[in-house]
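Title: Prediction job returns without error message
Component: structure pipeline
Severity: low
Priority: P3
Assignee: unassigned

Description:
Job completed but the reporter wants confirmation the result is attached to the right record. Sequence as submitted:
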Amino acid sequence: MAELNYKNIKINKNQLSDEDNIEYFEDNISDIDNNLNDETQSFTISSNQFQIGRLSYTYWGKIYPDRAPLGDLFHIGFAISQKYKWTKARKKGLLFDRINKPSLLIWTSWNDNLADKIDPDNFLLTKYDKLSFELLKREKDLLTRMEANIRDNSGEQGLDGEFKRMDRSAMSEILTISEFFKKIGESSKTHFITLYSKIYNLEDFYGDLGISYEKTLQIEAEIVAFMKLYSNLINQVNDYAIENGVT
């Protein structure tokens, strides 16, 4: 991100157009993949930028290991959108305000079409689901401090160890970690969940004098931390696939 001199940039966020918002977010995450790569692993970022219809002013990406034997079957979703339309939140709450403003966020995800071909019996998806829920329980305190969020796609009934394809037309609520555990109580059942990062809005990049270089670097560091944590799930399920002869 060194090529951008944020300290000399002063923009009134109230004067930015929808397109300006998305382009600004996109400019500020362009180098994140370099921070993910190390001597043991490198990542691919595939993206599409849509400018028409329901996806107007939306940057949508997938992030997954370069050498993943399953390709992008399991990946980290990445969206920058004028309004995040693919989940809902309780009205009058903080998350409702955040998803209805220009936002940047990542989440754990999988490729539906590829899953139909590689994993028609949901063998790997069931494992991915269990690993995700185990990560949530194991790192509950850390994820809470990071202001991560969660979507529970299993409704009132736990999965009891069997993955069930969610109805993509039925949007579940996005919750804070504390709200989710308050909802499920002492339930020991595995829940089909989607792990989200903190939801970042445009004003999170601003200080009193405009765009803040320090805040931008801090947000980048937080996003990389989320990606590294969630990418462990992808590595684990890929290893599980190899061990069981599924590639």
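Comment from assignee: result matches the submitted record. The two ends are 36 Å apart (CA to CA).
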